[in-house]
Each structure stands twice: as C-alpha cells, then as structure tokens.
Design goal:
The chain is of the alpha/beta class and 109 residues long. The chain contains five helices and five strands; from the N terminus they run H-E-E-H-E-H-E-H-E-H. Strands 1-5-4-3-2 form a five-stranded mixed β-sheet. Strand 4, helix 4 and strand 5 form a beta-alpha-beta unit. The termini are close together.
Amino acid sequence: MTVSEFAEKSGYAVFTKGEERTIENGYCGDFLSNIISRAPESCCWLTVMNNVNVAAVATLIDCACIVLCEGTEPDEAFFSRAKQLGIWVLGANENVFEASKKVAALCGV
C-alpha cells in the first residue's frame, strides 16, 4: 500500500508529504541507534520522538513514512527538515501498539 493510500485509509493527520512510496513493513521504536541498526528499508516507522534527529534517521534508513503516535506533533525544526527532505510524516492519536496494529491490518505487513 502506498503512503498516501495509507494516510487516507488510516485517517491519520498528514504533517508533511514526500515522494510516493510503498509501505513494505513496519518498525516501532524511539531509541535512534536501534532504529538505525534494525529498521528495515521502506518501513512505516512508528515513534513518539518529535525532534529534527528523526528526520535525519528517516533518510538514513530510507523509511517510507514516519507515524508520530500518541498525539505527538513534529516540532518546528523537525517539520521544516522533513518538508525540505520530502519525508512523509503522519500523526496518530493511538499509542504505538494500536497504531502498529492498524499499519499491519491496512498494509498487510
């Protein structure tokens, strides 16, 4: 499923848009060194982290999108950098567990 399709079907807020990507799997985490070493390419990364370092890590791991959970919104530096880099950043009110179930159900991952 593409990120734009996922955004529409999930009902999640869209903070920034990027190049159309296919979500191939998911990864949950907030510890950036774990994300760098373990998150698979083209994943939907679920996190509550909302600072500019998230944008840097997202480009490093080449994720399809980021879902900020628990009502988290990107801070100004993160928003600006994600927009500049063309990273999809979505927002969910659910906790990471509930959001990951939605990713799995909608994307079949």
